[in-house]
Amino acid sequence: MEMLLSAYVNKSDRAIFWSSFLGFVGIALSSLCYFGIYRLMAVTGDFGQSIEIMIKFASYFLLPTFIVFVIFFVIFCTVQIVAFAKGYTPYPKWCLIFNVFIGMMIAAVLTVFGHSAFMNAISAAYMGFGNIWTFGGLLVMMNKAKENSANT
User: Fold this and answer.
1) Rounded-to-integer distance, Cα 117 and Cα 89, Å
2) 141, HSE (Cβ side, Cα atoms, 13 Å)
3) How far apart are CA 99 and CA 78, in angstroms?
4) Cβ neighbours of residue 73 closer than 8 Å, sequence gap 6 or more
5) How far apart are CA 56 and CA 14, in angstroms?
6) DSSP 11
7) DSSP string for residues in 73-130
8) pLDDT tens, 47-90?
9) Residues 6+ apart with CB under 8 A from 152
């Protein structure tokens, strides 16, 4: 188990704290930006001008951030699948199905079962569903990984 956490052993508590703090601040800033857009729409009363401002905000702030996120997300998913497929983990190779992207696709497929409140919640939280799929599946398979790790 210690080998699995070795990437974080060399990181200082300060570096871990500031990286998590950056994520925390980013979420708060994006919420404030959306609130600012909402207030601008309420104050101006001009729907056309509000749409124009929102398009500029999305083009200059959200789109570049989203592009960077997608690039790193694709790299993350690819590296995880390759690591499982080549046997670099103590988990069985077939555990590569426990990938965030695959979990997100399962959530997308589930939406064909109707538009109930539950299905709408799943489709809105597709990335969270993917994370639950990944970490839940790997947690269930942890005993098998421990056995494989002990045998090597």
Assistant:
1) 38
2) 19
3) 9
4) 100, 101
5) 36
6) S
7) HHHHHHHHHHHHHTT-SSS-GGGGG--HHHHHHHHHHHGGG---HHHHHHHHTHHHHH
8) 777 778 778 878 888 888 889 989 999 999 999 999 999 989 88
9) 90
Provide the token pair at 13. Answer: 């508590």
Tokens 């703090």 — which residue?
Answer: 21
Over residues 97-111, mean pLDDT? 91
Answer for the pair 92, 148: CB distance below 8 angstroms, yes or no: yes
The tokens for 62 are 């959200």
Q: pLDDT digits over 13-55, tens only?
A: 888 788 778 777 877 777 787 787 777 777 767 777 777 877 8
Q: What is the pLDDT of residue 1?
A: 47
